Amino acid sequence: MIPMLREWRAAGRPITDVRGMAGLRVLLRRLVIDGGPVALGRHVIGDAAYHMNPTLGRGLSMALQGAVRVTDAIRQHPEAPYDQAMAVDAAARGADAAGHASSHRRRRIRPTACSAAGATSRPALLYAMMSA
């Protein structure tokens, strides 16, 4: 065993009961509201821009896409923070809306597909979820 990890593997006492995840809403945060930016020279990406359901495994890829959008906007409008904000928002609206809709669709489809497939065992449930 790696000595540094010994403490991590030692038996411990739980401080709470096991808690399930709840309230996994997908939320998008915008810095352009009512047609204008609410802050100039500030851009949000990753967890600052959207709250995603962690079971979808999309957080990192969406954060990277957001970073590319911000980088592109800064390159296109290096001295114009207003134009940067508008460009980032315009690029994000299409991409994030598609991801947001897909997240909601998968959340609704999976349970339906699982029950329709008669998934009662773990392998059957996983297969039904991947097929949805």
Report on this structure.
The structure is a single chain. The protein has about 130 residues and is mainly alpha-helical. The chain has a domain at about 25-105. The protein is built from 4 helices and 4 strands. The protein has helices at about 5-10, 60-75, 80-115, 120-130; strands at about 25-30, 30-35, 35, 50. The chain has a two-stranded antiparallel ribbon. It has a two-stranded antiparallel sheet with strand order 2-3. A hairpin with a 2-residue loop joins strand 2 and strand 3. The protein is elongated, with a radius of gyration of 21 Å. The N and C termini lie far apart (about 40 Å). The mean pLDDT is about 75.
Shape: elongated
Helical percentage: 40-55%
User: Could you state the order of secondary-structure elements as H and E?
Assistant: HEEEEHHH
Structural class: mainly alpha
Mean pLDDT equals: 76
- Total helices: the number is 4
Strand content: 5-15%
Please state how the strands of the largest beta sheet are arranged side by side: 1-4
